[in-house]
Design brief:
Number of domains: 2
Strand order of the largest sheet: 1-2-3-4-5-6
Strand content: 15-25%
CATH topology of the largest domain: Actin, Chain A, domain 4
Structural class: alpha+beta
Largest sheet: 6 strands, mixed
Radius of gyration: 35 Å
CATH superfamily of the largest domain: Heat-shock cognate protein, ATPase
CATH class of the largest domain: Alpha Beta
Order of helices and strands: HEEHEEEEHEEEH
Number of helices: 4
CATH architecture of the largest domain: Alpha-Beta Complex
Length: about 280
């Protein structure tokens, strides 16, 4: 009898062992269950900080750029301004190369020259203001020169146009009048200045270069500096003008987003004759 029941008993043991073995068996790793760590993703390289100067000289042209040290505090602004200015200088140099090759050789080639220098004008959250002087010589009767501005919104991290400082649809007549009055006053202090007339009229605010002006009140902007290029309010020989307009002259025109950045009075009244308060370091 035992010999007959042995196969049955062994079969029962095997039947019970199979499920237990299955429970102990570990499943093959899948994409979802794999414990292998994924390969690390290489981090994008940090953008290279732009320099504060650019120079390029060749037989056709000399170009140069200078930026203020403070611009390094605003990397996006630094990158935008440096890249934009250098692109313009390289375009100017390329045009000089073309003109040099096209010259008939009757007269010695006089290299073209273009230079720009930027200055920090004022800071008051959320605004940062820069201004520039530039000159350009392409062999004409005299070099051309003028001014530029850039207004940066640190909250939005982008450049804004001067018109963004004011309410949409605002009557800008008070600002126009304040600029005109300041020009008339400056002309009265400048020897040989031509009075405003039908040819040289008071400029609209949009025909000037508006720069943020520092304030007597810490952390505020005291007004605007209007930069006016030669030929606008007088002949080239008279030069350009720089006039200061206090915020009190246009407080009601300011856009709500920027009104809080203004207060107090301009830190400096500027030069009485309207000559620039900053000068350019020309690269020799």
């Amino acid at each position: 009898m035992p010999m007959k029941t042995l196969p049955v008993a062994l079969g029962l043991v095997a039947a019970l062992a199979a499920p237990l073995a299955a429970c102990d068996r570990k499943p093959a790793p899948t994409a979802e269950t794999s414990t292998t760590s994924p390969a690390p993703v290489a981090a994008a390289p940090a953008p290279t900080a732009r320099p504060l100067a650019f120079d390029q000289t060749d037989p056709a042209a000399k170009v140069a750029l200078r930026l203020p040290a403070e611009i390094a505090n605003y990397p996006a602004l630094h990158t935008l301004l440096y890249d934009r200015e250098v692109a313009g200088l390289r375009t100017f140099a390329a045009k000089a190369q073309t003109d040099r090759k096209a010259s008939d050789g009757k007269f010695p080639w006089r290299p073209y020259n273009r230079q720009a220098q930027w200055f920090l004008a004022a800071e008051a959250a959320p605004l940062v203001g820069l201004r520039a002087l530039w000159f350009e010589d392409t062999g004409g009767a005299h070099p051309n020169h003028g001014a530029s501005t850039l207004i940066w919104d640190t909250a939005a991290n982008r450049e804004v146009e001067a018109k963004a400082l004011f309410r949409h649809g605002a009557d800008m007549a008070p600002l126009d009048k304040a600029i005109c009055d300041a020009v008339v006053a400056a002309k009265s202090h400048r020897d040989g200045a031509v009075p405003l007339n039908d040819m040289f009229k008071c400029p609209k605010w949009s025909e000037t270069v508006l720069v943020l002006a520092p304030s007597t009140e810490a952390g505020k902007l005291g007004g605007l500096t209007a930069l006016i290029d030669p030929y606008v309010v007088g002949p080239y020989s008279e030069g350009g003008y720089e006039v200061i307009v206090p915020v009190s002259a246009f407080q009601g025109l300011l856009a709500p987003a920027y009104a809080g950045a203004f207060g107090g009075e301009p830190k400096s009244p500027g030069n009485a004759d309207g000559t620039p308060s900053v000068t350019m370091d020309v690269v020799k």
